[in-house]
Amino acid sequence: MTVARTVADVLAEHVTFEVECIDRMFLNVYVPQLQYPNGLVGYVHKHLGLPIASTAPLAKITDRFATAVHRFAEDEGIPWVDFAKGERKDDVMLERLKSFTAPQGVVFIGRAQEKTGLFRTEKRRRPDGDSYPWIVRTTGVVNQFYFYCVDADFGPFFIKFCSYFPYTAKLCINGHHWAQRQAAKAGIRFTAMDNAFAAVDDPAGLQLICDRLGPAAIQSLLDKWLALLPNPFSDADRDAGYRYQLSILQAEFSLTQMLDAPVTGRVFFEQVIRDNLDVGRPDRVSLIFDRRVHRRGKSLTPGRFRTRVITEGVTPSLHVEYKTTRIKQYHKEGRALRTETTINDTWDFKIGRRLTNLPALREIGFHANRRLLGIQRLSHDPIDGTQALHTVTDPVITSNGTRVPGLRLGQQRSHALLTALPIFRLQPDGFSNRDLRPLIAQLRGLVPDDITTGQITYDLRRLRHHGLIQRIPHTHRYRVTDTGLQSAMFLSAVHDRLLPTGLADLAAPTPTPLRAASTAYRAAINDLAQRTGLAG
């Protein structure tokens, strides 16, 4: 077995298989019409037929629901748990799962008091002194009913209901548990590892299964268990359109790369932690999350941008933060490299919370994982070889014989283009001539009017023919390619850091290490020429 020395070595030579899968998801279960005071007023007036809009009549529904939950537990012989303050509910579930043998059912029902949003009625007075009820949104500490269950398709999950109107609920699922059950049904042999796969005989088939988990399967799970569990809303309520829907509160998108040996993971994290503590900078975060980050002015991007290394025992983990979204990278059970993006607010990416938006979030989450690994790989495996350099700097002859000039290293115009490309990598919808023009002007120390639209069109043509950007079909917008990102990052760093510093050292009036090395090298060549008789 070869010994890994760099991040690129680990990813290229020591990953036995990898799986992308949705991990944990928290979903809000709610009735849309009852999320605002006017909707509640309509429910009381029009649906219940009561003359006064007040939350008082809803107490009967609350009592009926609580009674139904207790009766359900008694009739089905389901254990009841009153959670103590600070008790980890997942630990209770793990312990009780050890003795739960049914393929499907409710493991136990738990009750806890938690703070949540709800509606209350307050008394207000008219100008003439008469009082009237007014419904307002507020918060309160109320009972929550936790149903910890095992589903034939999804495995362990829980759904908790607020015991007060409008009886919102939270659904928690794990995509790996779902994938394990689907793989077993498909006849794919595997070894499970917590919420992952330690071994699998058909990685490609498993990945196809993981890719299938979407809104339809999750909605079916909710519909199935709403029919099995006590429901605060009656058949008449549901017939009138008061039905539960799903929105995404939190979604984790994971990439698990199984490694061939524990030492491989240690090499990876030694290199990553040493060389990637700057990935939390706004410019680096923007590369990972494919978004433009504004650091000043009215368009300031809110939120924290940082990198942290957290060590539990001897195992470090890398954490990157963008707004409320997090990427965590760690050595899972000493056997796998785990990279997972957790989106806590879909609006970080201007995407709504409805479950139908899961495919768009999936693309962002999985791409963020890959971009982080790409940046880490670039830190140790920059463009190598003359051919790669010539691909960018030499002219290209098109199929019709047209000569398209290359991007010459050191030329200000070419350097400005290479510096701009990583910025536009962030935008899912690409960039246009209009987007590029003011940025190039700024990088070249000019005003936008000094650069014509035609000049930018010419530059876009150069970038496209050299494979650094590609045109988005049926648009006048462009997207930066992987080759474009790697080339631009490396060549810009060489131009900005290596060449000016090296040339300054060589030209310095006082001795520098580089100048001393150059002088020694020239002296050694001259001495060799004298000894071999080549000197004239």
Beginning-to-end CA distance, first to last residue: 53 Å
Report the uncertain regions.
276-302, 380-385
Strand content: 25-35%
Mean pLDDT: 83
Number of domains: 3
Gyration radius, in Å: 31 Å
| Helical residue percent band | 40-55%
User: What's the β-strand tally?
Assistant: 17
How would the global form be characterised?
elongated
Q: Tally the helices: what do you get?
A: 17
**Largest sheet properties:** 11 strands, mixed
Strand order of the largest sheet: 2-3-4-5-6-1-9-13-12-11-10
Return the structural class: alpha+beta
Keywords:
about 525 residues, alpha+beta, Arc Repressor Mutant, subunit A, eleven-stranded mixed β-sheet, 17 helices, elongated
3D structure, described in words:
The protein has 536 residues and is of the alpha+beta class. It folds into three domains: 1-29 and 174-212 and 246-381, no CATH class; 32-167 and 213-243, no CATH class; 386-499, Arc Repressor Mutant, subunit A, CATH 1.10.10. 41% of the residues lie in helices and 26% in strands. The chain has 17 helices and 17 strands. The protein has helices spanning 7-13, 37-47, 58-76, 89-97, 175-185, 203-212, 215-228, 235-239, 262-275, 282-289, 358-380, 386-393, 412-424, 433-443, 453-465, 482-507, 513-532, and strands at 15-30, 80-82, 105-125, 131-151, 155-162, 169-174, 190-192, 197-200, 245-259, 304-312, 315-323, 325-332, 336-343, 396-397, 403-404, 469-471, 478-480. The strands form four sheets. It has an eleven-stranded mixed beta sheet, with helices on both faces. The radius of gyration is 31 Å and the shape is elongated. Mean pLDDT is 83; it is low at 276-302 and 380-385.
